[in-house]
Amino acid sequence: MDALIQPRQDSESNSDNSPAETRRPQTTRADDATTTAEASGEATASSRGDASTRSGATRATKTGSEKTTSAPTRTQSVDPRLPPGGVNMITPSALAQTSYYKVSDYVTFGWNYTSLSVKPSKIDVYISCATNSATYTILSNATFEPTQEVIWDTKPEATGTAPLLTDMYTLIVKDASEESTAIPQAGHLGTYNQFTFGMYVPQPYTSLQDGWKCATCSGAMSSMDLHALRFMLGMCVITVFSFTWFAGGFGAFF
Q1: What global pTM score does this model have?
Q2: CA nearest 171: which of 223, 71, 99, 238?
Q3: Most CB atoms within 10 A, among 19, 139, 207, 235?
């Protein structure tokens, strides 16, 4: 019995005296899966963030380009057979005789437009004098209106350095975007320069005693004019008497 028991004791002794094995912490598959999932999630999130950023940048770029892109300008088609646009004077009337205005007065001009298919956005209005090659601006880059009226102040301080002369002047109305020498186009406003008027500088008063003479009175006739008038009257008298004598010789009055 002792022999049978001894080996069991040795076995138990060997089991008790053997060094304990150090167990390494085991990594479970679940932990590995979680770690892999977290890494994959971070990579996916980063990837999605980059994609979102790129997409946002793309959208911003596209949106910005769409906002800055302007629509193409459309030009109005006009029948080339139509006449150019013109101006019809209202004040003073186009049918009235030539108007004369005194320098230093206010002069009013009014007009509307004819044959105008394309309206200009801005217009220029000025006065031109050929004698002193001067221009006097009334309106510059003014808003277009179908019927317009302007008042021109002709005082020396308002007209500038070129004084107004006793002469003829021309009213000019044109499209502000065009040169005055541009060729008129169908339906567009051309340079209007058909209205002329006179300006005069008032003269100081001169009495008859100071030598004033009436240009339309007989007293203002020169000696040459008086001799010519006497000669005409004398010829008329001679012609009448000669005809009377000639007709009386044939017995026309008996």
Answers
A1: 0.55
A2: 99
A3: 139
Cα–Cα distance measured from residue 58 to residue 55, given in angstroms and rounded to the nearest whole number: 5
HEC string of the chain equals: CHHHHHHHHHHHHHHHHCCCCCCCCCCCHHHHHHHHHHHHHHHHHHHHHHHHHHHHHHHHHHHHHHHHCCCCCCCCCCCCCCCEEEEEEEECCCCCCCCEEECCCEEEEEEEEECCCCCCCEEEEEEEECCCCEEEEEEEEEECCCEEEEEEECCHHHHCCCCCCCEEEEEEEEECCCCCCCCCCECCECCEEEEEEEEECCCCCCCCCCCCCCCCCHHHCCHHHHHHHHHHHHHHHHHHHHHHHHHHHCCCCC
Structure confidence by residue, pLDDT tens digits, 122-133: 999 999 999 999
Is the backbone peptide bond immediately before 163 cis, with ω within 30 degrees of 0?
A: no
